[in-house]
Amino acid sequence: MADTLTCDREDGEALLPNRPYQAVAYHYGMLLGVDDFNTDQSSHRGKIRLHNAWLHGFGTVWGLAVTADLERGELRVDPGLALDGAGRELHNDVPQCVNVGAWFTAHRDDADFDFTETSAGVSFDAHVVIRHRACLARPVPAMLDTCAGATSDTAFSRVLETVEIAIVPGPPPAPPRRGRLLRVLAGLEPPASDETGVKPDDQAALDGAAEIAAAAPADRLATTAAVYHRISVLDVLAAQAGGDTESVEVGLFPDGAPEDLVLATVTGLDLTGPGPDAAAPRWTLTAATIDNDARAVLLSTATLQDLLNVAAGAAAPPAAAIETGPRVVAGTVGRTAEVVIFTVDRALLEPTVVPAAFVASTFDGSAWTDLAVGGAEVSADGLDVTVTLASDPGAALLRLRALGSGAAPLLGDNKLPLFGDATEQPSSSAAAQRGVDFVWHG
Question: Domain 320-441 - what CATH class?
Answer without folding.
Answer: mainly beta
